[in-house]
């Protein structure tokens, strides 16, 4: 209010305040919804030895996620002598917070599905091994794309260019490497951050499509085929 939004009303401030407050409370509820039942199952002796390791790791991730969220928000309240625009959190901490959330969610989902759905006993053919490698590579690419989205959000890079597929009148903008050293552009130049996110997004959709087409050539269980088809549908919608 003092630095930028001089005309903000109390009602407008309450809106963003409750957004933040709800996010914090929801995160705490999620943590309790995981940790309390896990402690109960552990006490009752319902967890196998390998599962206890997974439970401890996921509990640690839940706590780490909350701590990282506090660390991220803290960066938005610090004075930045080299920045005079909109106060914002560190894009590095935002990406770390999002990345750890994705890891926590994926690990929880993987653990839950491993318990609910028995693993298929499939012959380890060359095609199946290649499909698994492609799937792992696609997963890593999607994860990297999501992290690049956090940098776009943290820098408000989405406001720089609003045309697609070109950026303004050019395919490759002039200020792509405006910062020095060059590596700094990848993380701090809004133009480069948006450009990278576009390229990664297109690459992700291409990789998912290729994964789907390759999977059609392999005899797979219905559950696996449904998962690959769903992945393509969500990638197109995204």
Automatic annotation (TrEMBL):
Pathway it works in: Porphyrin-containing compound metabolism; heme A biosynthesis; heme A from heme O: step 1/1
Cellular localisation: Membrane
GO biological process, one term: heme A biosynthetic process
Pfam families hit by this protein: COX15-CtaA
Transmembrane segments: 25-42, 54-73, 93-117, 138-161, 197-215
InterPro entries xref list: COX15/CtaA_fam (IPR003780), HemeA_Synthase_type2 (IPR023754)
Domain of life: Eukaryota
Catalytic activity: Fe(II)-heme o + 2 A + H2O = Fe(II)-heme a + 2 AH2
GO CC list: mitochondrial inner membrane
Membrane topology label: Multi-pass membrane protein
A molecular function GO annotation: metal ion binding
Entry keyword set: Heme biosynthesis, Iron, Membrane, Metal-binding, Oxidoreductase, Transmembrane, Transmembrane helix
Cofactor(s) in the UniProt record: heme b
Record protein name field: COX15 protein
Native source organism of the sequence: Machaerirhynchus nigripectus
